[in-house]
Specification:
alpha/beta, 7-stranded mixed β-sheet, 6-stranded mixed β-sheet, 16% strand
């Protein structure tokens, strides 16, 4: 018998072009193989700093995004009623002139009448620049319903956070603890890191109500009750403090633990830091007993100091923090039942954290110099690291939970040390290195500064002269002072209600607000189509840009069709969301590795054109002529400040990095280099970044800031105390009376756990079950579940039910359930899952589709067996009877509280399809073929 002849290395392509993936937020490097000018194959780029050749199912299936039948083909103008899906194709010139005719009058009369909000566009430094020059205060991206608690809590505590700000020291960590981490975000780097950790025999502890993905391979899984992570972490801190298992040296040198606070009750400065005439926080030196600025050379801060000045007592932050967490309310026994974790297990986990941090400490032979001028010959390592994501962020108590987790790792001394959590350049950045939010707009003028930022106190809130909100989403107001990312989930609701004012035009990019990106999906669709007593739409105009025929398309008046990510230029910038790793600063580009076969344009280039037509500052010169031909031109020639542009690599003569003049050949150099740039952190600057003079000098050289900015980690967040003082009646800028107690209760400068707001607002006996969503590893956003390859992995989504509830309700395979919340009900298929908190149900998010959207058949499983939990959620809390509209958000940041949902479940008779069922949308692209193929021939 003769063995068959197999060609094990067939010719896959004629050419390979290197660019950056867009199938999730990892932004991995990819090699795009082309054959006859078409995409034939996508693989990982082994030279890329993010993924080093690793590519997941999402990345490989990017080929099916380029071929998706749902791609929009040309600009569209609505001809029928909103929601009808009736459009006519128009030219780009007509589309842009129409947009100009809508936007120009409001810019000249009241720029705030434009609300411009973007989804996961990864180009927010540019879109915010456009909105700022238009002059509207109403701009933000999707972070307010995704991750703002994580980012904001991290910035106010450490100058950075989990997510895209940092990563574990994968080469040295031995114990890795994750909280609320799903598999969709940053998946390749985490998987690679877990491989390293496991190969060394390290341990993973997963804290998540759901045991899937990373939690499924964890050595220990803690199936916590949703919304109680802050209690659990507080109990760990309680145990560590009682046992004295904290890093006192780290706390005294690198945090504000030894800084002194006014401890005199009733004082207008109670709870504020004692500062010198230069504004520097003061500490007591252990050797001399004198008050000294925190950064004085040779000072040895005393954690237990107490001083009295002019009759006012001042005690250290550390004493206040110890008083808080040593309280009996945070003992393991007190929190155990609520968290669903036994007291013994809490104590055991705390002991394991302490054992690894202190008994397995190690040193690296690497000298460095700290910001006080002290020379250290070694770097001390503590091999415990943490990571957390949306699971602990998307609660109405998420800000304080995230802060509590940061304090846990700081108490152990595991941040910015070998083996611990490390920041990715350009982070860390203290609050002081960020702008404050700006909101003052005038007709025919740019906004007075950046929209988003970090407030230091009441004076930074985005309020009008009369104290009312300046922004349509009410970000940076007394309702949610530390918003940072805005409140995208409140835009449509507030615009419809005319609260705080009416707008003229909604402008969305890649934000599927008529379906899976909205709380209260049915209500939002009604708001988008609602008319006033004159028969006019309550929200007069809607402009929308997307690459695909999503559910939102049918509700827009004007569609500006985007390209797919392989057909346009993109800038993954150090000004925005770069691809840095802890050991290197890096950025990247996308470029048109193929040309579109449709009449579509990259959205950023469309904004460039529209900005020029509107004669916006920053987009035209003094003669009114366009400054940039397109986005590629902007990427090369725009300078945010002298020498600092969107791209940090290959500047000036092609060899300058970070700072440097414009290089007209910059994009070519990026393409030659695999579409990325990387600059490694010097060895002496690799750890202790906030306090390391080597890192601070290197960061100035790269242009992250203009002078060294060493700072202390903020165990005590003074900006929150400033807000509390205002609520207590101190200061000129005062909150409305109905919000005073909310501010006092929730904006505590030392984290304090409180019950999730929806849980406190509903009868939990009637709605006893927690309900969650989670994104699957194979999909990042709704566009993934229309992908011909990825649909085969997740074409439908059951409601997963734990063993206890499965047995109680007599469920069996193939059954359906009715799930009811205080806001609505759904009827959906169920499936049994043992690895699940016993009082929690969950499903994959964004699988369910509305009939007629995404070019799918009306009987596609995504439309008949897929569903959304969004129908059970609302952007507002249940009425309190006070006549006020209370946002279903974290009262500190405005983070959408997706995961506070409480429901009840009951067995239902089988139905033909998941309920609620909506009528089919009429799609401008029609339906795709029954089979989508991509065949490579040799």
């Amino acid at each position: 018998m003769t063995d068959p002849v197999l060609d094990t290395s067939p010719k896959v392509s004629d050419e390979v072009r290197k660019t950056t993936c867009y199938m999730c937020a990892c932004r991995c490097g990819i090699n795009v193989h082309l054959k006859d000018g078409k995409v034939a194959y996508i693989e990982g780029n082994r030279d890329h700093p993010v993924n080093k050749g690793v590519l997941c199912a999402k990345g490989s299936s990017g080929i099916m995004q380029v071929n998706a039948p749902s791609r929009l083909k040309a600009p569209l103008k609505r001809t029928g009623p909103r929601g009808s899906g009736e459009f006519e194709e128009i030219s780009w010139d007509e589309a842009l002139e129409l947009a100009k005719s809508w936007l120009e009058p409001i810019r000249k009369s009241g720029p705030e009448k434009l609300a411009f909000f973007t989804g996961r566009d990864q180009s927010q430094s540019f879109t915010s620049f456009w909105a700022q020059n238009f002059g509207t205060p109403n701009y933000a991206a999707h972070g307010g319903f995704c991750s703002v608690n994580m980012a904001t809590a991290g910035i106010y505590t450490m100058g950075g956070a989990f997510w895209e700000f940092g990563q574990p020291d994968w080469d040295h960590t031995k114990l890795f603890m994750i909280f609320g981490v799903a598999e969709d975000h940053d998946s390749n780097p985490i998987k690679m890191g877990l491989g390293k950790l496991k190969a060394r025999g390290g341990k993973v502890i997963g804290v998540n109500p759901i045991r899937s993905g990373y939690n499924a391979i964890a050595d220990e899984w803690v199936g916590i009750t949703p919304g109680t992570d802050g209690l659990f972490i507080s109990a760990l801190i309680h145990v560590l403090l009682k046992a004295g298992k904290i890093d006192l040296s780290y706390l005294s040198q690198f945090t504000n633990a030894p800084c002194l606070l006014n401890a005199t009750p009733g004082s207008p400065e109670e709870g504020l830091l004692l500062r010198d005439d230069d504004g520097k926080p003061l500490v007591v030196d252990r050797s001399s007993g004198t008050l000294e600025p925190f950064d004085k050379q040779g000072v040895k801060p005393n954690l237990a100091a107490s001083v009295e000045l002019d009759g006012v007592t001042h005690k250290t932050v550390f004493q206040h923090l110890a008083d808080r967490f040593l309280s009996d309310e945070y003992s393991p026994e007190a929190v155990s039942e609520r968290c669903g974790v036994s007291a013994g297990r809490i104590k055991a986990i705390a002991a394991e954290l302490a054992r690894v941090a202190f008994e397995e400490a190690f040193e690296l032979d690497q000298p460095w110099t700290d910001f006080r001028g002290n020379r250290h010959e070694k770097m001390l390592g503590r091999p415990v690291s943490f990571h957390a994501m949306r699971g602990i962020s998307a609660h109405s108590n998420g800000f304080q939970t995230c802060r509590t987790l940061h304090i846990l790792q700081i108490l152990l001394g595991t941040v910015e040390v070998p083996g611990g959590f490390r920041f990715k350049p350009p982070y860390p950045k203290p609050v002081e290195a960020h702008p404050t939010p700006h909101c003052h707009s005038k007709p025919d003028c740019p906004l007075d500064g950046p929209h988003l930022g970090f407030v230091r106190g009441p004076d930074d809130l985005a309020l009008k002269e009369d104290g009312t909100p300046a922004r349509i989403d009410k970000a940076f107001t007394w309702e949610n002072p530390l918003s940072a990312h805005g409140l995208m989930h409140m835009v449509i609701s507030n615009a419809h209600a005319g609260d705080p004012y009416k707008i003229d035009t909604l402008f969305f990019y890649m934000a599927n607000m008529a379906w899976n990106s909205s709380m209260n999906t049915r209500g939002v669709m009604d708001m988008l189509t609602d008319k006033d007593e004159n028969g006019d739409y309550v929200i007069p105009r809607i402009i929308y840009s997307d690459a695909y025929s999503s559910e939102m398309v049918a509700y827009a008046d004007l569609i500006l069709p985007d390209t797919t990510y392989l057909e346009r230029h993109d800038c993954i910038s150090l000004l925005d969301r770069p691809i840095c790793e802890a050991d290197a600063a890096a950025d990247a580009i996308r470029w048109p590795v193929i040309e579109p076969d449709r009449d579509v344009r990259g959205f950023q280039s469309v904004l460039i054109d529209l900005g020029a037509r509107l004669k916006l500052p920053g987009f035209v010169d003094e003669n009114g002529e366009a400054l940039y031909a397109d986005y590629a031109d902007y990427m090369v020639n725009h300078q945010r400040r002298p020498g600092i542009g969107p791209l940090a690599g290959f500047r000036g003569n092609g060899t300058e990095t970070g700072r440097g003049g414009v290089n007209p050949n910059q994009l070519e150099r990026y393409i030659e280099n695999g579409s990325f740039f990387v600059e490694h952190v010097p060895a002496e600057a690799s750890y202790y970044k906030p306090w390391n003079t080597g890192y601070q000098d290197w960061a100035v050289k790269l242009g992250f800031y203009d002078k060294p900015q060493p700072y202390l980690f903020q165990l005590y967040a003074e900006p929150l105390r400033r807000m509390q003082l205002a609520a207590e009646g101190h200061g000129d800028r005062q909150p409305p009376d109905h919000l005073r107690q909310q501010i006092i209760d929730h904006l505590d400068p030392i984290p304090a756990w409180y019950e999730p707001l929806e849980e406190a607002s509903v009868d939990t006996d009637s709605y006893p079950i927690h309900a969650l969503t989670q994104r699957p590893m194979a999909m990042y956003h709704s566009w993934g579940s229309q992908n011909a390859w990825l649909r085969q992995i997740h074409g439908r989504n059951p409601l997963y039910v734990p063993t206890k509830l499965w047995t109680e309700h007599g469920f069996k395979d193939g059954d359906w359930a009715k799930v009811t919340s205080v806001h609505g009900e759904i009827t959906v298929p169920v499936a049994h899952m043992a690895g699940l908190n016993e009082n929690t149900v969950w499903t994959w998010n964004a699988i369910g589709k509305r009939k007629g959207a995404w070019a799918l058949d009306e009987d596609a499983p995504e439309a008949t067996r897929g569903f959304l939990l969004n129908h059970l959620i609302h952007e507002l809390l249940p009425p309190k009877g006070d006549g006020l509209r209370w946002s279903n958000s974290d009262p500190v940041t405005g983070q959408a509280a997706w995961f506070d949902l409480r429901v009840r479940i009951e067995k239902a008779a089988p139905v033909e399809e998941s309920l609620p069922a909506f009528g089919a949308l009429k799609s401008p692209v029609g339906k795709g073929p029954a089979i989508v193929r991509q065949k490579v021939t040799s």
